[in-house]
Amino acid sequence: MRKLFLVSAALLLVAACGTNGGLGDLGSIFGVPQTSSSNPASLQATVNSVDPANQRIDVSVNYVNNLRSSQGNQSIYYDSRTRVVYNGNSGYAPTDLERGDQISVTGYNDNNGRFLADTITVTRNIRG
Description:
By secondary structure, this protein is α+β, with helices and mostly antiparallel strands. It is built from 2 helices and 7 strands, in the order H-H-E-E-E-E-E-E-E. The chain has one domain: CATH 2.40.50.320.
């Protein structure tokens, strides 16, 4: 009986871990949230695409600080409080980002385990 319980628990664990589809997001690849709004993380990345309908920015991560390091394609989420700064001006929206823009992001894992951007700073605009 104990063996059956352990096998069932293991199967549930494997099933729960395998529910991530698509590109994934920083919250899920870094496991248990290690960041919060009072302990933000930062990363540097290149924008691949912006999905306004899902408030998501798909990026190629170049560097991660305060999270388990990982590189590759990931998703960053934003909300109405996310600030976008370019050349010292914060009058931009996440939807103004373009494929190829290089960005520096500070944020945290939200309650859903997704990496939510607090501030996005454009470090290199693809248009020069």
